[in-house]
Amino acid sequence: MDKNIAFFGAGSAAEAILSGVINAGIVKKDQIKVANKSNINRLEYIKERYQVFCTQEKERIIQDADILILAMKPYDLHDFMHEIKGHMNKRQLIISILAGVSTDTIIKELEMDLPVIRAMPNTSAMIGYSATAISKGKYASNEHVNQAEKLFNTIGTTTIVAEADMHIVTAISGSGPAYLYYMVEAMENAAIEAGLDQQTAKELITQTVVGAGAMLQQSEDSPNVLRQKITSPKGTTEAGIKVLEENHFQKILMECVKSAKARSEELGKDQ
User: Fold this and answer.
1) Beta-bridge partners for 118
2) Bridge partners (DSSP) listed for residue 181
3) What is the set of domains in the chain, with CATH numbers?
4) DSSP assignment, residue 39?
5) The whole model's pTM is what?
6) Cα–Cα distances in Å, from 215 out to 43, 66, 130?
7) Which residues make Cβ contacts (< 8 Å) with residue 17, sequence separation at least 6?
8) End-to-end distance of the chain based on CA atoms, in angstroms?
9) What sign for the dihedral angle of Cα 37, 40, 44, 45?
10) 207 Cβ contact partners less than 8 Å away, ≥ 6 residues apart
């Protein structure tokens, strides 16, 4: 993939993509450049660890870039676009990982008919296990989608979705790891309260989550069927599930996802 890539934003999501691209060898280090708004220490860290060019001067890295990856905070988008739009050209592809921000918003801010791809990776990208959803803007071609897929396949799996579905995708796969971590926190606390040491609890619960994920991925059975297979009548699992049902666990999770989706929609309206 002979493309020059410019990252705007140097947070954990940008680092995960950058790391995946470098480790996969699909671009050379001298083809990657990174700009950040104000955190000099973060830029120095990225430069030292990955040996890529880093700067606070956005204009220095825009003109030679084939692909621009927008990874700043969504509320910084307007000012960023105002600064860079005079330096853009129509051969460039923009890939945005900004939560809640539509491709049309980016095109409108740029005042140019540029191809824009919207992507939503999650934090598991740091270890190559991201579930990334991709959708294309009105000026993006299938070739642009293929380029985005090549990039995000280096940090996990990619799924192409309609942009209208991106808000629910953000709520599920974007925020989803946090819901699981929150559940694991509770399981660890219960294990420790019952007398298990923290390290043992962590090891057992972590492998349980990994194993359940693998079963979901590899089995032809639905989650409902998989659950029923380990829920023996009057057994320990049934006793636990009964408490979850009494406390409306599924309803709470569904409300959790709905709330995250609504917030993603609000972020889009704020732009």
Assistant:
1) 96, 135
2) none
3) 5-162 (3.40.50.720), 176-268 (1.10.3730.10)
4) -
5) 0.85
6) 40, 40, 17
7) 7, 69, 71, 97, 121, 125, 151, 152, 154, 155
8) 33
9) negative
10) none
Read off the tokens for 82.
């105002």
Residue-level pLDDT at 44: 94
In sequence order, which residues have a C-beta less than 8 Å from that of residue 197 and are 6 or more positions away?
A: none
Percent of the chain with pLDDT over 90: 75
Span 179-185, average pLDDT: 97
pLDDT of residue 271: 61
79, 152, 226, 250, 251 from 260: Cα distances, Å? 26, 23, 27, 15, 14
C-beta of residue 228 within 8 angstroms of C-beta of residue 238? no
Burial (CB count within 10 angstroms: exposed 0-12, middle 13-18, buried 19+), residue 240: exposed
Q: What is the mean pLDDT of residues 122-129?
A: 87
**Tens of pLDDT, residues 81-94:** 888 888 888 899 99
The arrangement of strands across the sheet holding 130-136 comes to 53-55, 32-35, 5-8, 67-70, 93-96, 116-120, 130-136, 156-160
Residue range 132-157: mean pLDDT, rounded: 95
For residue 237, the one-letter residue type is T
- Hunting for tokens 């990776």 — which residue is that? 121
Tokens matching residue 63: 């003109």
Determine how β-strand 32-35 pairs with β-strand 67-70: unpaired
Give the separation between CA 91 and CA 177, rounded to whole angstroms.
Answer: 36
